[in-house]
Design goal:
The protein is of the alpha/beta class. The chain is 28% helix and 28% strand.
């Protein structure tokens, strides 16, 4: 089968063996794949958790049809249209755990479905399970114009947040954040953004920050979070190291929690998928939660798709169709 593989000369479409499902695995005939920032790093040889390096089939998000089942795979059957996440997504076939799947609604395309699994699981977990967002509270999404950021805005609004703030350093994308639920859109590269957040919250600060930027805004985040508020760190788009004001952290008594799928067990991931299905699935079926398709590339042009992502001018998800 054809797959997008990182090799000695970089990432390229290559012939590899078709995988065979065992145990709780299912074999997926992939029809569309969503691109993510972590994939971009892996095309350059960077590791993502334990994954990466020469010989790696890239990709982590897909939509397709179940072609075969392992002998311990339950809750699904051959022919089901499903979307999910996991390693080695960029190929004609991939393997997935039976608990790491979502059903694709009947009237949803494979391309649209491929935009959803990573955003839904990442941000429902960060906002609701870990961030403990409740109706009437305020939330700031750092990096809100990314695909997962746009989903976070929508989930926050769906769950009754009183004030939803989103950040983007790009004006054209920042201006569109209200379309996805932002009550206030800020530029996190501007020196005055903390004052904007404080003004919008009566000088108290937000109840919760979902932080995809980290490094350069770490101390500003502390200043923009209320006493006894929460910060959930889900990414490092701004860098992995920075100064940290430990005194301000202590004075505001902020819960600061890091989350990532890279170190989670399959049992933890299955539970995250179960929580999404149990809590917000009707909103997905009714299209209250959706992501814009920025552009769809054929699989033969997957290199151009990554060049488009690296140019960083898109809003929403870039998808490859097989």
């Amino acid at each position: 089968m054809k797959a997008y593989v990182y090799g000695a000369n970089g990432a390229a479409i290559t012939d590899v063996d078709k995988p065979v499902p065992t145990g709780p695995q299912v074999l997926i005939r992939v029809r569309a794949c969503g691109l993510n920032r972590a994939d971009l790093g892996m095309t350059k040889g960077h590791a993502h958790g334990a994954a990466g390096g020469a010989g790696t089939v890239l990709g982590m998000e897909w939509a397709g049809e179940i072609e075969a089942l392992g002998d311990e795979a339950f809750g699904c059957q051959v022919g089901d249209r499903v979307m999910g996440s996991g390693a080695a997504a960029f190929g004609e076939y991939t393997l997935a755990d039976h608990g790491r799947l979502f059903p694709i609604p009947d009237d949803m395309s494979f391309e649209q479905a491929a935009t959803l699994p990573v955003a839904l699981t990442t941000m429902h977990n960060a906002l609701i399970a870990v961030g403990k967002l409740r109706a009437g509270q305020s939330v700031l999404i750092q990096g809100a114009s990314s695909g997962v950021g746009l989903m976070a805005l929508q989930i926050a609004k769906l769950k009754g947040a009183r004030l939803v703030v989103g950040s983007s350093t790009d004006k054209s994308r920042r201006d569109r954040l209200p379309e996805f639920g932002a009550d206030l859109a800020i530029d996190s590269s501007s020196a005055g953004w903390v004052d904007q957040v404080l003004a919008a919250t009566g000088d108290a600060g937000v109840d919760l920050i979902i932080d995809q930027i980290s490094g350069p805004v770490a101390n500003q985040n502390l200043a923009a979070t209320r006493v006894l508020g929460r910060i959930v760190n889900v990414g490092r788009l701004g860098g992995t190291h920075a100064d940290f004001n430990f005194d301000l952290h202590a004075a505001r008594r902020i819960d600061y929690v890091g989350v990532t799928f890279r170190s989670r067990s399959i049992e933890e991931i299955r539970e995250i998928f179960r929580q999404v299905r149990g809590d917000i699935w009707t909103a997905i079926e009714s299209r209250k939660l959706t992501l814009p398709l920025d552009r769809v590339f054929p699989f033969a042009e997957i290199g151009q798709a990554f060049a488009h992502m690296e140019a960083n001018r898109h809003l929403g998800k870039i998808v490859v169709s097989l």
